[in-house]
Amino acid sequence: MKKQEIDHILTRMLDSYGSVSDLNITVGKPFQVESAGQMVGVEIDPPFEELTPFQTEIFALNLINRDKRLTETLLREGSCDLAYALPGKARFRVNIFSQRGMYSIVLRKLETKIPTLQDLNLPEAFLRMTKEKNGIIFVTGSTGSGKSTSLAAVLNEMNETLPVHVVTLEDPVEFSHPHKKATFNQREMGNDFDTFASGLRAALRQGPKVILIGEMRDRETVEIGVSAAETGHLVVSTLHTVDAGQSIDRVLGMFSIEEEKQIRIRLSGTVRWIVCQRLLPKVGGGRVAAFDILGSNLRSRETILNGETEGKTFYEIQSASKAFGMTTFDDYIIELFEKGLITEETAMSYCSRKGIVGRGIDMVKSKRGEATTDIDNLEMA
């Protein structure tokens, strides 16, 4: 299979539907794409009803393109990451992985246009993040929830307004930021550094004001990241968690019980914002983002330091601190429902606390003059 054939298939997949986010190549299935959160097959001439192990392996080897490091990583670890460009069309973040002795490939489409905070209609908290001088900002969520896109918008705002040096450590580089007011040095794992921990250690000697870490994957990276934040850098990174409060537990879980108190002290002094996001199906098609935002104030710092207790949970702090840019998923989801962007069913499916969202939806429906119950003709006996 030649590069021209690979590019032809990828182009056909990309053009098959609107809003394609992922291309999926799996043994036993046809070529598939993810469009608006749904997996759909792609018709290609000649047709591929079911891909064979040989076809997916050849496809994978062509994407790797004889790269010795990637080949060794794939054989040793069972998966590898790389970037692939479709000239004049798109760039992809590619993951090739082994499953039951066969190879599968997922290509995530990377946007070439760098988004702005306004384009994405992000909450005001994101603008506040760009004005932070030091500390740690976590943007969290599941794979494909738009974390990288939101971070790109934050960095773009800094690029437009601040004359600072920004070093990014990515796997791979997703958005290529031009030099504007800021100076950008974007480093790619594999080509420019070997692990996030070593790349971050080196970044501290490169004079940045802002450091983006693609993902805090291990204890060593977290430890160096916290040290960087304590020494006057602004560290921005991602985690995979379901809400803002759980992000603290995820970080603490990387350390031993004996170290917990010390890391809590350090996190309470360095964490500036934690934002978790989810993408929800939108009325009329497409998706809309919902946010769970925890900022730094006296109460949140105390809760990071001592842990959550009755009456002092991150959820309660967020609910009571809307004036400071904080929100819970549930409050944000009720707002999306009020604006008519999501259905009641979607709101109840994606919320954290069904009772709170149910009451919020009933209040919205009451304001609109809609019925809040299915029970009609109630009479006193």
TrEMBL record:
Query: Which GO MF terms are attached to this record?
Result: ATP binding; ATP hydrolysis activity
Gene3D superfamilies from the UniProt entry:
3.30.450.90, P-loop containing nucleotide triphosphate hydrolases
Q: Which InterPro entries match?
A: AAA+_ATPase (IPR003593), P-loop_NTPase (IPR027417), PilT/PilU (IPR006321), T2SS/T4SS_dom (IPR001482), T4SS_GSP_E_ATPase (IPR050921)
Q: Which SMART domains match?
A: AAA
Q: Which Pfam families match?
A: T2SSE
CDD domains in UniProt: PilT
Ranges of residues in domain AAA+ ATPase:
133-258
Q: Which family does it belong to?
A: Belongs to the GSP E family.
Q: What is this protein called?
A: Twitching mobility protein
- What phylogenetic lineage does the species belong to? Bacteria, Pseudomonadati, Thermodesulfobacteriota, Desulfobacteria, Desulfobacterales
Q: Write the gene name.
A: pilT1
